[in-house]
Design a protein that fits this description.
The structure is a single chain. The chain has 3 helices and 6 strands; from the N terminus they run βαββαβαββ. It has 167 residues and is of the alpha+beta class. The chain has one domain (11-159): Cytidine Deaminase, domain 2 (3-Layer(aba) Sandwich). It is globular. The mean pLDDT is 94.
Length: 167
Amino acid sequence: MKIRNIKIEIEEYENTDSLPKQDREMLTSATQAIDGSYAPYSEFHVGAAALLDNGELILGSNQENAAYPSGLCAERVTLFYAKSQFPDAVVKTLAVTAKADHYEIDHPITPCGACRQVIAEVQNRQEEKIRVIMKGETGKVQVVNGIEHLLPLMFREEKLKRSRSKK
């Protein structure tokens, strides 16, 4: 047996005031995107904003459905729209934030597993890292430079395209 260590790096800021200006603006846009959230079941509203290399800023929010698996997270709404409208554009930054109806979210909100895999697919496809900014309503902000810091053992396309060798 061999034990391997995986190193991830997360930038952590005390609050949004200590962020670079562009990151603050991204979080402001993600917060505005929350207004489009449809979350009557979880009462947990998420907004996301993606900055593309062509200057476009794409906003998205979570969209729930009574048949829970039919809903979609803000991150996937945002990235799917961005890539459908601007297929050749590179996603530079993705900001994510949330608010709840009955309590204050005082810690960074991280993408769910399905969203992490979608971010990984977009990043792998464009061959350029995506900066992911995460915050709650208040409190610290966390930033990673590349999805591998949120999904270190990601499933990759090459795992699908293998063949058995004949002996």
